[in-house]
Write the structure tokens for this entry.
Amino acid sequence: MAGFDAADFYDLNDLCSAGERRVRDGVRAWVGERFLPIIQRHYRNGTFPLELTPELARLGVFGPGIRGYGCAGLGAVACGLMMQELERGDSGLRTYASVQGSLAMMAINLFGSEEQKLRWLPAMAKGEKIGCFGLTEPEFGSNPGGMQTRARKSADGYVLDGRKMWIGNGTVADVAIVWAKVEGEDGVDPDSPKAVRGFLVEKDALGFRRSLIEGKLSLRAALTARLEFENCELPASALLPRTDGLKSAFQCLNQARYGIAWGALGAAMACFEEARQYAIRRIAFGRPIGGFQLVQAKLAHMATAITRAQLLAWRLAQLKDAGSLRPPQISMAKMNNVQMALEVARSARDILGGVGILDEHQCFRHMCNLESVSTYEGTRDIHLLVLGEAITGLPAYS
């Protein structure tokens, strides 16, 4: 597939169904043929190839696990393999699909009315409408329960005020899923996480502004935005009626974290294969550097780490399809697999030596991207605390 020899030391390919392999190979070929030839230019320029959106939609990567509404309705393994192959191209590419499908579309699918689903999901599956997910705020990242964005009830609906930060797809989204604490609901403390509800905010809503975050040294080929709301008037129909506190937002985040656990594998596999090929070709002291013990040890450690992470992701998919997946299990896989990918990317850069910093190679770009992936959808430290609570029964977040 487009010259890519995927790391698969434990022959996990044999466990894939014919349909899962077909999905994976289709995305793999597309990434190799259509995306990798242009990523260097977009990463340098801090842009994203939006013109590829219809092609991504035809691959079925937008909301692939959603059933109906024009979505692919795939199983967990196939969805994961899609994210793996997209992130093999670039974390910004997988982020574009994850924000659209796992966050924005999933919020509508889980918590929207049938009318909202019919209006948005088919168009989003086709890439005709783009969505974003506004949860994180400038002062509240790891502690979303402290959010300051408020929705006041009005005669005709709601008035939204507040700011959101680090919002993928924010500048190009046709609709933003915005989480806010509602003031004026009977019996609900507006400062409580239970007061959090989700709203559909369309791009032309009065009082809604968005701007691109400049100066990023990571995720440069991703459109990351600030969202601002000032007396933004929303109709009553903007409310996602089935949202029920901050836990609703977390349900969407867990869908995205599942995809990240697989996506990180793609970045690691890209770096590993680049390092392996370089070690075979690069001559030093009269022979390929891949014939030296230290380089072989690094490659062996990388292959072992990738294999452990693949097995973790595979079991995660089985649990997801069985309906028995628990959030701490997702936290473990997201934390472990992203950390693994970062270490593999750093080892790959080390094997490439000085040329590893050049953007004609992949490893440094993946390494920079993974610093962001390690932070968003829950930092390593927060996932450690999630696991700690699951192990001991004692929360330790403060």
About this structure: The longest strand covers residues 157-168. The CA atoms of residues 60 and 72 lie 6 Å apart. The chain has a mean pLDDT of 96.
